[in-house]
Amino acid sequence: MTKTVEFYFDLGSPATYLAYTQLPKICAATGSELRYIPMLLGGVFKATGNASPAMIPAKGRYMFQDLDRYAKRYAVPLRFNPHFPINTLLLMRAVTGMQLHQPQRFAAFVDCLFNALWVDGRSLNEPETVAAVLSEHGFDPQEVLALCNDESVKAALKDNTETAVKRGVFGAPSMFVGNQLFFGQDRLDFVEEALRQA
Question: Of the listed 13, 32, 52, 174, which one is catalytic?
Answer without folding.
Answer: 13
